[in-house]
Amino acid sequence: MKNFFLILIFVFFAYEAQSSIKKNIIEKLQNVENISFEFEQNINGKIETGNCSIKYPKKIYCKYNLGNKKILVSNGKSLVIKTLSSYYLYPLKNTPLDTILNKNFLISKITNLEERIIDGKFINYNFFENENEINLFFDRKTFNLIGWQTVDIYQNLSITYLSTIIKNQKLNKNLFVLPERN
Predict the structure, then answer these.
(1) Please, what sign has the CA dihedral across residues 93, 99, 101, 104?
(2) Long-range contacts of 172-177, Cβ-Cβ distance < 8 Å, separation of 24 or more
(3) What per-residue confidence (pLDDT) applies to 4?
(4) Where are the chain's structural domains?
């Protein structure tokens, strides 16, 4: 009987700890209007770096540290990837970013998912949406979003790590205006 109560107490505290993690992540997301960060992106072994700003819902501006002056911009409906020599325009809804940039959708998804603790440092939520597998990663200490893993529109594995995260700063409203063609 004593062992039964010990197991019951352990299960209760484990459930409370998981509930607390999820509650903290959801609370952090609810209180974020925008974030800016440095990133490292690994697409099939090719690593690119730069900085981004996300304004919820569904807006992003990323400037890559590349000689070709690559930028990625979403105005909430369309996504443009532009370099000195190329210009690609996609409907945002056809990309995994449509889901990642929608914090209300993420909150509703996380509410119904079980988290995984990775290496004692990271919290991971995994789900499928519109035929895209999406892995979200949060810091276990701060509960901040620190990255995601998806398969991009060309079926490439894309892993994005966030660092130097700044939340709720004043952003230029023109930042998310789609650039013109070259």
Answers:
(1) positive
(2) 175/53, 175/55, 175/61, 176/55, 176/59, 176/60, 176/61, 176/73, 176/74, 176/75, 176/76, 177/73, 177/75
(3) 38
(4) 2-176
Backbone torsion region of residue 61, taken as left when φ is above 0, otherwise alpha when ψ lies between -120 and 50, otherwise beta: beta
Residue 9 CB partners (closer than 8 Å, separation 6+): none
pLDDT in tens, the chain (182 residues): 554 333 433 433 434 344 689 999 999 999 999 999 999 999 989 999 999 999 999 999 999 999 899 999 999 999 999 999 999 999 999 999 999 999 999 999 999 999 999 999 999 999 988 888 999 999 999 999 999 999 866 788 999 999 999 999 999 989 999 999 87
Contact partners, residue 101, CB within 8 Å, separation at least 6: 54, 56, 57, 58, 59, 60, 74, 92
CA distance 138 to 163: 12
Q: Quick one: tokens of 121? A: 């440092």
Classify domain 2-176 at the CATH superfamily level: Lipoprotein localisation LolA/LolB/LppX (2.50.20.10)
- Whole-angstrom distance, CA of residue 74 vs CA of residue 58: 7
Distance (Å, rounded) from C-alpha 72 to C-alpha 127?
Answer: 24
Predicted TM-score (pTM) of the model is: 0.85
**Pairing outcome for strands 34-43 and 157-167:** antiparallel
